[in-house]
């Protein structure tokens, strides 16, 4: 009994260790030596640059830009500010970013190392502390510490604080495609965030193989590497973009992304503040930067390209383990041969029983089916019980971590309960065979379909070793058997949390299935317990307890504020005004304008669909405010042959932030120029804006140039028209509206146009 208690304690310890080893636990303070990174020193900068939202075009954006220039100047660096118009064809954004650049000269004429993060925050309410103020101050403090050593690097070190990343990676666009330094870059280290805490994951951006990048990363030897080739493979399949996308696609420049994703509910919200940034997370970013800066500033950056990939994963004690993809099939074949040999040997030795092995498939398959169904429908059920969770567009509510506990404990309980049904004191060895066969099948599939997950074979090898011990000994030492589970628990446990945290609770099925698969290999220890039924009920009770705790944290309050939205829409074409919202459930604040009986929003003439497919839901007609509509002047209208040449000047008559241009597909544009920026078309196209999402042509972000000059050509016979939506984010400050300040229990909803005054005006050319 004592040994079983020790075994259970070791299993819990291994799971705890798998998470504990991911991040630093101590924060470097102001007394840290000058040549070392200090999170406390970095936080001084962070506090100064996150006093207010600083999205592109806001007054605070210029304040933050000037602060960063001074901070780099104080380090003795010469600064460049790059300003050029950029058009992101995919996102439809047009803006004039202001990139901040500095360069530390090396003693060798070789490729340069680029340190990258963006300094703009997401409009309009986010303070940008994590995304990506944390990256900016990590680089500032890291460079300060590096320069304190007084040595000259081999490679040039370039610092780029890019602008307009949140609008469409526009700062990265103009650097990669228009700045002469771009051709010098050998490697980019990019610091990002998609939450406000948790470990920072390393993700690779490359057009080729990752083998040399992984080799260099391991040789740099960061203390807390969190990276695996499964995340790398999934990341490459997802349509995610960071600044590194332009470096990879347009410059064929390799990069390493470092991004943390926990506390996802803070992402792009007013909660992304200095106070809520996890200090251990900032320390983790610094623990990446310093050894990588030291290593890659001296390494040969001409030799990072590779055609081969490596499988890699992090594990406590060993940090990063990797091996080439060429090993995948041999390791799989060897494991299959060992498995077959052990089964044959066990049957001959009568340690394995064919009937018991056949029965052993039932609980494993049953657990996968039950837990898979529970996980698949779990988030849908939670939304049905708590429909207000739908207002959190991230898909990860404030009590999301408790729900991960609920589903993980429930899945373990199901496994305990099912495996107890086939319990016999002598059949543990036979019960271990079906899970190993299932894991081998999974490894076979990923070897061809998802090579990055091929490290799943590592726990299988230790499972085979456990099976060998079970075949040789009917009652092996349970402590030994528990230690053989450590690779499984240390490597796989963090994935239980990673998927729902990073991708939302809609992916909680990944947790329930992974728990089922992991438990099946743990049967080599739990198979000896005759009390699995008791454990099942205890785990069911624990899961229910976590659910109750989550229920009592399911409401909105000052710590967990409700995201909501409100906009004022004035249609100058119909001379009508409406209040509108993206919310599905109205609260007291929004009902004050939309009433308790709002109308379903009519998207036939106005459709601002935002990220996650969120559309305006309700509206209410209201009084027309005396707002000045944009001034439109057609300065040229000439027909030459079959082409009509138009020059149009548009000048907002109030302070605005964006001008959105829409036109349906009956409008063909042969060419288009905005404030001197020519819209590109491919060699196979004879027109521009051939791909339009919801009829949107582009979004012009207003910065220094308040007016817009359009020069475009259309077919001469075409009746051309497009709609302008003039947007300002000053609804709550505008004295014409006197909108009440949100209560402290509410925040502006992210990812949508919010707190905005929108004027629609159609321009036609008959």
TrEMBL record:
Gene3D superfamilies: Zn peptidases. One of its GO terms (molecular function) is metalloexopeptidase activity. It is a multi-pass membrane protein. It is found in: Vacuole membrane. Residues 99-289 form the Peptidase M28 domain. GO terms for cellular component: vacuolar membrane. The chain crosses the membrane at residues 327-347, 359-382, 402-419, 431-448, 454-471, 478-496, 508-528, 535-552. The keyword Glycoprotein applies. Keywords: Glycoprotein, Membrane, Transmembrane, Transmembrane helix, Vacuole. One of its GO terms (biological process) is proteolysis. Belongs to the peptidase M28 family. May be involved in vacuolar sorting and osmoregulation. PANTHER family: METALLOPEPTIDASE M28 FAMILY MEMBER, VACUOLAR MEMBRANE PROTEASE. This is Vacuolar membrane protease. It comes from Gelidibacter salicanalis.
